[in-house]
Amino acid sequence: MRLQWLAVFAGVVLAKDPKDRAGTGAGRRAADAHAAAAAADVDVLPSATAQTAALFFSVDGNSPQPRGSLVFDPHQAKHSAKLEAPVPVDKALLAVRGRDSRYTLHARIGSGSDAQELSASVPLCMLQSAKFTEQITLHVDIHGKPFHLDYLVKAQECIPDVELSKVTNFKTSAHVGRLVDAPRPRLEQPVDPMDAATKPPEQSTSLSRS
C-alpha cells in the first residue's frame, strides 16, 4: 500500500513539472515556432521549374554592378519571385544628381550563347524620392520564357532634398507576369466574287427631301 501511494505521489509531482507537460507553456511555443520555421523553409525552396536571373544596375550607362539574383518560377500559380543575396544601396546612389540621370536595372537569364538580357530604367531622382522602394516584374510568355522587364518605384515625381541618411537597403517586391493566352482566331467564310457581283444593291435607308 505504501509503495502504491509513493508511486501515485511521484506521478503527481512529475505531472506538475512544466518541463514535462506536453502541449503547454514555453515548450509548446518553441515547438510551434520550430514547425512554422520548417514550413517556411519548405515554402521558399526552389521548385524543379525555378529559374534564376542575375541582377545588375548601372547609372547613366556606366559599367553594371551586381545587385543579387532573382529566383522565379514561370509555372507557379503564385506569380511571385524572390530576391536572393541582395546588395545594400550603393553610397554613390545617394548623391544628388540631375533630373536627367537614370538608374537602369539589368536582368541576365541563362549563360553563354543562350544568355538573354532585359533592362528597364527610371530617373534616379525618383528612385531616391521613393527611398529605394521598388517593384520588379519579370514578364514571361506562355512557354515560360522571359521577354520583358518592368521596373517601378514608389514615387510620382522627384522630391528635392529627400532625407536618405537612414536608407541602407532596397525595399523590393518581385513578381512574375505571365502572358495570357490570346483567343483562338475565328475562321471567316470566304466570299465568292461571282456571288458578290450578282448580289442586288442594298436599299438606302436615308430619307431625301423632295
UniProtKB/TrEMBL annotation:
Position of the signal peptide: 1-15
Q: Which UniProt keywords apply?
A: Signal
Reading the lineage from the top rank, the first entry is Eukaryota
Region annotation Disordered: where it falls in the sequence: 181-210
Compositional bias of kind Polar residues = 201-210
The record ties this protein, via PANTHER family, to: ER MEMBRANE PROTEIN COMPLEX SUBUNIT 10
What's the name of the protein? Answer: ER membrane protein complex subunit 10
**Which source organism does the UniProt entry give?**
Polyrhizophydium stewartii
